[in-house]
Amino acid sequence: MAPKLRRIVIGTVIVLLAAAGPIAFLDYFLPHHAIVRLVGAETRRPVGTNESHTTTHDVFYVFAEDVETKKPRVFRNEDTGWGFPFYFKFNSADLQAVAQSIAGERGTALLTYYGWRIQILSVVPNVTNIKRAALDERPPIPWFNLGFAAVVVGGSIWLALWIRGFWKRRS
Q: ω before 85 within 30° of 0 (cis)?
């Protein structure tokens, strides 16, 4: 392989590896949408122990199935509060009531959520909004995600060109 081609390949691999972390981070925390049929909802109270006292809090779960494939999907419905990620969600009990109402009818809903489902780690995505939806409705286009990605990509290109120009001026 020619030295110039080798530098291009190695540079491309380094850029892709450096971008993988931020891309995964953004994919996890930016909102996603899904049209699902709600089949159930429940509340669990996990018990955590602290050195000074035992802590409990309600964790709501929403059970659904994909409308087209009938594959089961599980979502967590937990308040984010004031912390990260900054969804400022304080209405998990209200959303749970909506989920139970729709599940009682075996109706379809548009779920807005963030996170991934990783079964081996028992990680489930967190619901941020639930709305009734028609069976033939399509999820909305994620304009915020597209705009955010455009800003990140544009900023990265600008930064790369600025650094390149900086090094050219120094030479």
A: yes
CA distance 71 to 36: 10
Residue 89 CA from chain centroid, whole number: 14
Q: Read off the pLDDT of residues 66-94 as tens digits, 9 standing for 90 and up.
A: 999 999 999 999 998 898 989 999 999 99
Clarify whether residues 107 and 120 are in a common domain.
Answer: yes
Same domain, 76 and 158: no
* Residue range of the domain that includes 21: 3-27+147-170
Task: Please give the Cα distance from 103 to 43 (Å, whole number).
Answer: 14
Instruction: Please count the other Cβ atoms lying within 10 Å of the Cβ belonging to residue 87.
Output: 17
Range of lowest pLDDT (30-39, 57-66, 149-158): 149-158
